[in-house]
């Protein structure tokens, strides 16, 4: 008899498996329907021996000392600050938009003070900020919005920014200085030997058994277990009773080139041209030395694996129905990005899992109000 059946070996499932086995001495079975652990953060060496991320670039960043310290038990780190360029009007320019973006695009030589006035003179504030378009046009004006955001958003989501909730672009900062880092977090690192190695160390405990290529549906009635931690899609758990929760998917095209470098930074965005949204060159992230280089092209898709919950009010309403069902389901804890239908970064999922562990330790039932999205 297992104390826990944990569905999904990503950050949510693996973080909880480790805590439950190590701190409580519980017996844990972790399953994943994919042929590997690590969930979407899974990385692997390709045929050329280059470390690549199977499901697109994953850059670790957090402001939480506690989360950083927790993960540091399972990996050493490589200092890495993420930088992204966007191909706009034939030029490679920093994104998030900063002083160099504006000067480069318009052939100007503004100072920090002047660029704030520049944004103010172009901005068209909306009476009520509701959509992603309102956020960006209200801050930097229509031209920068069209060039950097509109096309990218339409590709990424298959929707115009005017149809998307303001939260989608609210997280993209605009800077008046020359800071070209993509994230402003205190801790910005990559796991030195990759994510998969880190997950292997997390799950390496005599009380943890891992089965990949195993789905919840095929095993739930076969393996005796007391309680469940479910990190898969919440609508699937309930057999899509109220309909499918909408997701945006991606297709990843991985290529290796017989040249040492392809682009100046890890990620180049294509907001105006091309079918793909961005190209990632992994050696910038991993620091690996190799005569060849591996890249991933990302093509947004309407169907396929669920990657991004689509942030629209009607989808949030549908999720609420599932959330109510989940709260009424005893002995099943719903944790992680798919089970709580939220776009979470890796550190947020670890935080959510650690908070869930605290509630389990405190003896709280899975059905308690707030138990699902704890800490996220
Ligand atoms: C393209 C992309 C880029 C990203 N980049 C970043 C980044 O740079 N930085 C960052 O912090 N975050 C990033 N993220 C977010 C990051 O991937 C998530 O925060 C993290 O993977 C969530 O972990 P999780 O355990 O909740 O889910 P997942 O990693 O998705 O793990 C869930 C697992 O459950 C398994 N599963 C589902 N249903 C079943 C079932 N019925 N039976 C058995 N197994 C099942 C799945 O196979 C999956 O492996 C990115 C996400 C995407 C899509």
Automatic annotation (TrEMBL):
Keywords, alphabetical: FAD, Flavoprotein, Isomerase
Pfam families in UniProt: GLF, NAD_binding_8
EC code(s) of this entry: 5.4.99.9
SUPFAM superfamilies cross-referenced by the UniProt entry: FAD-linked reductases, C-terminal domain, Nucleotide-binding domain
Cofactor(s) required, per the database record: FAD
Official protein name in the record: UDP-galactopyranose mutase
Annotated GO MF terms: UDP-galactopyranose mutase activity
UDP-galactopyranose mutase C-terminal domain span: 147-343
The family this protein is said to belong to: Belongs to the UDP-galactopyranose/dTDP-fucopyranose mutase family.
Cited Gene3D superfamilies: NAD(P)-binding Rossmann-like Domain
Enzyme class: isomerase
Keyword Metal-binding assigned: no
Domain of life: Bacteria
């Amino acid at each position: 008899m297992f104390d826990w059946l944990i569905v999904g070996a990503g950050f949510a499932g693996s973080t909880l498996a480790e805590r439950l086995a190590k701190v409580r001495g519980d017996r844990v079975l972790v399953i994943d329907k994919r042929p590997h652990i690590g969930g979407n953060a899974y990385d692997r060496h390709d045929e050329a021996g280059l470390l690549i991320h199977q499901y697109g670039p994953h850059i670790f960043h957090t402001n939480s000392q506690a989360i950083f310290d927790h993960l540091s038990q399972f990996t050493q780190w490589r200092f890495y600050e993420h930088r992204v360029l966007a191909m706009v009007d034939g030029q490679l320019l920093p994104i998030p938009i900063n002083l160099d973006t504006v000067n480069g695009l318009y052939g100007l030589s503004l100072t920090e003070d002047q660029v704030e006035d520049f944004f103010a003179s172009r901005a068209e504030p909306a009476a009520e900020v509701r959509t992603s378009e309102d956020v960006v046009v209200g801050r930097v004006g229509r031209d920068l919005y069209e060039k950097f955001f509109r096309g990218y958003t339409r590709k990424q989501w298959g929707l115009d920014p005017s149809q998307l909730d303001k939260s989608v672009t609210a997280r993209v900062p605009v800077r008046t200085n020359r800071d070209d880092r993509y994230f402003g977090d205190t801790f910005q690192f990559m796991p030195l030997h990759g994510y998969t190695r880190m997950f292997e160390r997390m799950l390496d405990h005599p009380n943890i058994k891992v089965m990949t290529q195993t789905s919840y549906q095929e095993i739930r009635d076969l393996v005796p277990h007391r309680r469940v931690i479910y990190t898969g899609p919440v609508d699937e758990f309930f057999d899509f009773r109220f309909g499918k929760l909408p997701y945006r998917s991606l297709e990843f095209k991985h290529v290796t080139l017989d040249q040492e470098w392809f682009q100046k930074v890890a990620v180049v965005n294509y907001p105006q041209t091309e079918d793909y949204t961005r190209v990632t060159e992994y050696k910038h992230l991993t620091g690996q030395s190799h005569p060849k280089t591996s890249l991933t092209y990302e093509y947004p898709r309407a169907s396929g694996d669920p990657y991004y919950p689509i942030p629209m009010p009607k989808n949030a309403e549908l999720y609420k129905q599932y959330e109510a069902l989940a709260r009424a389901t005893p002995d099943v804890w719903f944790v992680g990005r798919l089970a709580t239908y939220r776009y979470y970064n890796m550190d947020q999922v670890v935080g959510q899992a650690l908070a869930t562990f605290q509630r389990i330790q405190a003896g709280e039932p899975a059905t308690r109000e707030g138990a699902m999205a704890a800490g996220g």
